[in-house]
Amino acid sequence: MRPLEFKNGVLKLIDQTRLPTELIYVECSTYKEVAASIANMTVRGAPAIGVTAAYGIAIGASAVNTGSKEDFFKELEEICNVIRSTRPTAVNLFWAIDRMRRKALDNRDADVSAIKDLLVREACEMDREDVEINKTLGMHGNKLIKDGFTILTHCNAGALATCGYGTALGVVRAAHDAGKKINVFADETRPYLQGARLTAWELQQDGIPVKLICDNMAGHFMKSGAIDCVIVGADRIAANGDTANKIGTYSVAVLAKENNIPFYIAAPISTIDFSIESGDSIPIEERKAEEITHIRGIQLAPDGISVANPAFDVTPNRYITAIITEKGIIYPPYGAGICRFSNI
Ligand code: MRU
Questions:
Q1: Ligand 1: which of 43, 44, 162, 167 to mutate, judged by most atoms within 8 Å of the beta carbon?
Q2: Lesser CB count within 10 Å: N end or C end of the chain?
């Protein structure tokens, strides 16, 4: 399963706002359409956002109608700025934009059409690499999973959130593919319901046993011994291991510690922001009130009610048992463990 496909200059995305009741696709043939698809969460999940951004830059650059290098680079900056402003928390977005800009700048001596081709090729390469990274990460994570384990996850860090296979669900898939009998408990993940709509759907599609629970049931199931470990994805990991992920992750991590249950983060190295020392510097996206006051157009809360809707929270490193990456598993103390990868 892949949430994005690039063909003949057009990026085709599964519209994740419509799952699981409708499987429909959105086609983006301009960079502004790509930017809108990230902002309105047609595509979401840190690695998928990053690669979508890369394709957006490739599409935007290809459409720049000039032979002048100076004008081309000016327009490229504008394209990058528009895409940069879509969502603030997932660092993969900024990582992908930087990588694309660097590709263009490192080849500034080539002619404009050659730079355009290089940008398309770079985006395709990032897409291909992402699937490979997830499979390697899954293989490392599989070592932590015993036959018969029940794994709790929050949000969707699956194939839909990446270019295929997934990070947290990549570990689940690797264990399942290895013949282990595993079960998944999926938090519904209010308010946007990525667990109910996306994780439940993609695991069901693959025949991996999954039980959907409301977010406020996680503690009950941990205390009653139903959960063997928790695995979630990440939107940004600070140099000290503090991790931003979907709102509600912090509560799950605290509950896991209280119940002596291992709490794992599964994420590619590109999700580490080496430039920030701790999670205190991670910008948290605030989303619109309607995501809480309404569900699919049905009003749940009184008119005019004041709402807070942070899309992410930060789990301090002391709650994290290990961080599973494509380069191996990082254990505390995270400062030293993470620093080894800073110039990869
Ligand atoms: O708001 P979203 O749906 O983009 O948030 C997604 C998450 O929080 C995921 O857990 C994270 O991006 C990791 S995806 C492999």
A1: 44
A2: C
